[in-house]
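WARN no homologs supplied; continuing
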Amino acid sequence: MKNIDSAFKYVRTFSMLLVVACVGICCFSVYKSFQLVSHIQSKIYILSNGKALEASIGERKDNIPVEAKDHIKTFHQYFFTLDPDEKLIQANITKALYLADISAKRQYDNSKESGYFTNIISGNISQTISIDSVMVDLNQSPYYFRCYGTQSIVRTTSTVTRSLITEGYLRNISRSDNNPHGFLIERWATILNKDIKVQNR
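OK structure emitted
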């Protein structure tokens, strides 16, 4: 009887350990399966020119510095890239104004009233901008930024190189076709805009 009782205890203990081990293995398998599915769903493949490119899904906070700087660069390139073509000027300014608030519209209106765009068209002037650097403070929202750029103004007789420094704030808004980064430039102002070199053509 003692042997039967001790054998029963051993079998019961072994059975309990086996059940616990099975439950542990099942839980671990389910966890790893969910982890694998989540990892697979975070990647997508894009077909470009017959080649499959892998793209990863990330949270917006991971890309804020890059997107903020690109938003600022895009706005300045639209706003300051001008050619002697009224439709092109209007198209670029319209794209730029989707990325900023009334402060940019006010600067555009002031330039228009002073005849700046008329002079570009009548004088066959081309203007481009190269963004040297963008500084964004992400510690507090809205994010303060300062943009450093170099303008090149090509006239019939000369090429003028100008230094441009602007500042403003970035506010988060919803993304759209006209504003893919989901930022809006506020309180935009020009700190410095002066000639640094004039070269005869």
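The two ends are 114 Å apart (CA to CA).
OK
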